[in-house]
Design the sequence.
């Protein structure tokens, strides 16, 4: 299961497979021993095994309980009240299965034991380098009932490929880190989002045991003693570093975001990732890709994914498109308690960072957002500083942690970002601490009211932080706000490093998107070009010693 909101009990043929709590992370169960079917003769060849079918119907039942915001669990922007009356900046809740469900076959492991198998359970990729990738392969050997067995005799092989050609490989025991240098490394960035392919193979040594039998894992040993392939997984990675560092110490010690060692200005959008016909669920993979690709088409390079964890495919599109992602951790608004919310939040946080940590597009985690959720994190080790350190320990390759975007915990000056929210106009007029870079985590919220006929999702209920009369007026004010960001960016004292406009799309009755809720255009082609060119002035910036920075080359050039 990609994700089920919130508490799921899964049954197969009336028998409980397992229980999972959490609305944003994936989970799976081994169904092998619970399947029913006619007795089939033992298959001898691989072709015969592949042709084996279950000849009876198997029933899967998923029972879901989701209290939404009536519970204490993190639920992001979802509100039950929005079912009957849209809530402005909060939206209709989802419940139940909202991401993909699939069956996955893992390899058989032991000819003599039908209840045992070995496979690749996980692959951890540390790609925070300009010269090497670190890969850890996690292998699983299980028997019926979920018991762990002896995983001796296993080897993991990793091959790095460029355009299907293997350029370097390494082997190591499962669970051990492989530090693999990449010759003439190609780096990932918004302008050149280069990705290496990765092939991971799990092998058994193929040797006989001292007693003359076979090892427990894999098929019978080969006559020549060569390794037996148990499982193969394909993946990818992008080499890049993302840090906050002073561009020219000691004369300019203000921290700025740096990508691959070079200062970069990040200009992007707040993305709620809701859809009219599916709420949390996108109608198609093309719809997921559309929202990601819209960002560079408008001249921006950043998405702050807001109070939601998206399906893996969304991040796949971000990786391949070259869009940088600041990832929020969904939190609890209003009903957060220390005893109830904190354990669930910590569980979700661990699952999110582990589950999405291999994506090169994600460069920063945002732990809290506004309001009061952070206030219940009072007891060590899960106080606010402790949560920052926990995030760092879970993902040491990503050094930048935003403790609180626009909320009171930002004043604690823990984490790596001084992140303020100002509506509608961007403003962060105080110099950040020496250990943080400056960010306007939210600004904007412009809307055209009344909206043109046929574009308002909930007629007569539209809300925006600043109401304007036409798309022309909207585009002009957006350009003016971006010009203000340009001044803040180039000021060596303020050194603004990132800015996030609210928001990508309208959502229900919050009508402040750059496109309508159904993703139809809000601006004319001329107005869209005004916005794109101004965004390119922000994102094509290069740091210049003594003058803050300059726009490099032709500001109208495409970066996608």
Sequence:
């Amino acid at each position: 299961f990609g994700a089920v909101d919130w508490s799921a009990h899964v049954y197969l043929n009336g028998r409980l497979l397992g229980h999972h709590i959490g609305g944003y992370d994936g989970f799976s169960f081994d169904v092998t021993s619970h399947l029913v079917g006619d007795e089939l003769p033992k298959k001898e060849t691989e072709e015969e095994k592949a042709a084996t079918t279950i000849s009876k119907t198997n029933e899967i039942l998923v029972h879901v309980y989701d209290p939404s915001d009536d519970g204490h669990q993190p639920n992001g922007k979802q509100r039950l009240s929005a079912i009957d009356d849209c809530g402005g900046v909060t939206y209709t809740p989802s419940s139940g299965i909202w991401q993909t469900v699939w069956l996955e076959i893992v390899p058989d492991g032991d000819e003599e034991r039908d209840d045992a198998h070995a496979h690749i359970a996980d692959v951890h990729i540390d790609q925070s380098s300009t010269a090497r990738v670190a890969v850890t392969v996690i292998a699983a050997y299980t028997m019926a009932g979920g018991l762990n067995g002896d995983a001796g005799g296993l080897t993991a092989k990793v091959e790095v490929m460029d355009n299907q050609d293997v350029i370097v490989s390494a082997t190591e025991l499962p669970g051990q880190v492989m530090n693999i240098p990449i010759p003439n490394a190609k780096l990932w960035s918004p302008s050149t989002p280069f990705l290496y392919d990765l092939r991971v193979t799990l092998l058994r040594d193929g040797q006989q045991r001292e007693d003359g039998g076979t090892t427990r894992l894999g098929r019978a040993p080969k006559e020549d003693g060569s390794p037996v392939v148990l499982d193969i997984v394909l993946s990818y990675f992008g080499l890049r570093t993302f840090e906050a560092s002073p561009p020219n110490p000691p004369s300019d010690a203000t921290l700025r975001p740096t990508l691959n060692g070079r200062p970069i200005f990040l200009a992007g959008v707040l993305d709620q990732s809701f859809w009219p016909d599916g709420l949390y669920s996108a109608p198609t993979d093309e719809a997921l890709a559309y929202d990601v690709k819209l960002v560079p088409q408008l001249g921006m390079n950043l998405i702050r994914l807001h109070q939601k964890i998206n399906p893996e495919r969304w991040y796949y599109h971000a990786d391949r498109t070259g869009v940088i992602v600041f990832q929020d951790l969904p939190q609890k608004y209003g009903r957060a308690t220390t005893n109830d919310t904190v354990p669930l939040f910590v569980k979700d946080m661990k699952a999110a960072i582990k589950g999405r940590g291999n994506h090169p597009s994600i460069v920063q985690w945002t732990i809290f957002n506004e309001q009061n959720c952070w206030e219940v994190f009072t007891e060590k080790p899960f106080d606010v500083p402790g949560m920052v350190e926990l995030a760092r320990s879970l993902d040491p390759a990503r050094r930048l942690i935003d403790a609180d975007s626009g909320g009171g915990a930002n004043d604690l000056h823990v984490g790596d970002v001084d992140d303020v929210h100002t509506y509608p106009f961007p403003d962060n007029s105080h110099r950040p601490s020496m250990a943080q870079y400056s960010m306007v985590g939210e600004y904007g919220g412009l809307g055209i009211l009344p909206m043109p006929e046929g574009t308002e999702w909930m007629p007569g209920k539209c809300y925006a932080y600043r109401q304007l009369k036409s798309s022309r007026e909207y585009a002009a004010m957006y350009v003016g706000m971006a010009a203000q960001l340009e001044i803040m960016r180039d000021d060596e004292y303020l050194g603004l490093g990132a800015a996030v406009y609210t928001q990508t799309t309208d959502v229900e009755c919050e009508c402040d998107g750059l496109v309508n809720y159904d993703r139809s255009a809000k601006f004319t082609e001329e107005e869209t070009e005004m916005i794109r060119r101004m965004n390119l002035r922000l994102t094509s910036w290069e740091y210049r010693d003594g003058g803050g920075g300059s726009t490099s080359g032709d500001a109208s050039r495409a970066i996608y």
User: Anything to note?
Assistant: The chain has seven helices and 28 strands. Residues 286 and 292 are 10 Å apart (CA to CA). The longest strand covers residues 132-143. Residues 116-237 form a domain with the Immunoglobulin-like fold (CATH 2.60.40.10).
